[in-house]
Amino acid sequence: MRHQSNTEIHRAALRATAKIALSLTVVGCAAHVEVSGASEQRGEGGGRDVRATSSATGSATSSATGSAPTESLVCDAAAPGEEVTADAVAFDCCVNQLQAEPAANFDAPSAGLLACCNEVIQQIDANPALLADITASLVAPVWPEPNGPSCCNVLGNPCSAPCGCTVWGPPVPRALARRLHTLAELEAA
Amino acid sequence: MMGAMLDLRAEARAARPDLPALEHLYRDVRETWYGRMVNEYASAAVFVGLAEQLRGAGLGEELALECESFAEEERHHGILCGAVVEAAGGEALAPQPVREPFPYHHEVEPLEALLRNLISVSCLSETAAVALIGAERLRMPEGSLRQLLTRIYGDEVGHARFGWQLVSRLLPTVAPAMRERLSDYLALAFAHFETYELAHLPERYTPPAEGDALGLCSGSVARELLYQTVETVMVPGLARLGLDAERAWKLRHQAARAAGPIR
User: Fold this and answer.
1) pTM
2) How far is A64 from A42, CA to CA, in rounded Å?
3) Closest CA of chain B from A16, distance in Å
4) CB contacts, 8 Å: A49 with chain B
5) In chain B, where are the structural domains located?
6) CB contact under 8 A, A109 and B221
7) Rounded distance, CA B242 to CA A12, Å?
């Protein structure tokens, strides 16, 4: 089994997944594990590797409210769950903010600290060269050694640099702050 | 000063699997399974929210109770993932994760709000989880870690199937205008789903081949499977139910831009 290629493994995994979505006539059957079924799957799929490119911008500001912030920097940082775009000003502001935060504040993070952590981690994810501009321990992976202030730890499950695939549990569905645009409107825009 | 903590150590230690003696990979194992522990445990709140929506939509107590059992399963998965952390020399202890509030979509009627979330949770996220965990399970040799993964996989199949079946039952009963609005929402849901998944599948993480035995997966390979799942399972599956899924997938980035920030 371990000598199967990625293509073979993906085919088998997709067959099992397709059974759930495309074989809805078996209503009410209990959950069970079945990975070797014979149902046909559709084509191979794209297998592209494309990052989401939404330009939605975050609005959370960083103004530490935890214990004894050393400065009251205000950064235009995206709160967790919001999308981050390349923004050198926000990155630099947040790095300064985070490096000035007392370590204790990472144990009870303010909204501003969370937003700055999210901003820094996501910008680094998009551009790893930014790592050179910060104190490495600030973005130590989700299991920092030794335990110290780390944005990865603060965010709970960011999986930024070397951390492996961790995306299983469903995220909170998307809320709407504005009216919903129709597909026709999106095409026309 | 310590904030609220998620402390699963006692239960996780009691469930520790035997890991292959690949100590040079144990740091990666701790990182990966620690993230899973937090992610799985925190996702229970999503099913609690869905259960409340099911009650609000008047769909019966039985379905709501089933959804609440999924929440319990997600918490148990958190413990199982923590058990792997403990087996690799770590501690199943983490800051309580911070998540957005569950959206009840009060701007639309309860049934439409429920369908938005069912599609997002079961037809997108949990369906992707089935594919990703399924592939990881196929790569893993027999042993106690594979048994643990199989338990999680079986539950995730149930979570995905629940949504697909309920959506397939409800969609034919709704007005065409609601189906159109759900297709509009689907574009945004796809964008949200893609952003979240990619953020948790780091492209540059590639463990050595023996990492398969420990549940370490390549981010780039997982991303490839993710897109295959969208294009060969989710889009055709939702299209069969009457949603304009292919168009919604193509327009996802425009939908995210138009929607703006979450709050």
Assistant:
1) 0.72
2) 51
3) 8
4) 203, 220, 223-224, 227
5) 5-259
6) no
7) 27
* Pairwise CB contact (< 8 Å): B261 & A20: no
Over residues A91-145, the pLDDT tens digits come to 999 999 988 888 778 877 888 888 998 888 888 777 767 777 777 667 765 433 3
CATH superfamily of B5-259: Ferritin, core subunit, four-helix bundle (1.20.1260.10)
Q: Which residues of chain A lie closer than 8 angstroms to B201, CB-CB?
A: 165, 167
Q: Tell me which chain B residues have a C-beta less than 8 angstroms from the C-beta of A18.
A: 232-233, 237
**Contacts with B96 (C-beta within 8 Å, 6 or more apart), sequence order:** A156, B3, B4, B5, B6
Task: Inform me whether the C-beta atom of residue A52 falls under 8 Å from chain B C-beta atoms.
Answer: yes
What residue spans define the domains of chain A?
A: 1-43, 53-162
Inter-chain residue contact A107 with B1, CB threshold 8 Å: yes
Q: Do B129 and A21 touch (CB under 8 A)?
A: no
> Distance between CA atoms of B234 and B119, rounded to whole angstroms?
10
Tokens 């920097």, residue? A73
Q: What is the ipTM of this complex?
A: 0.92
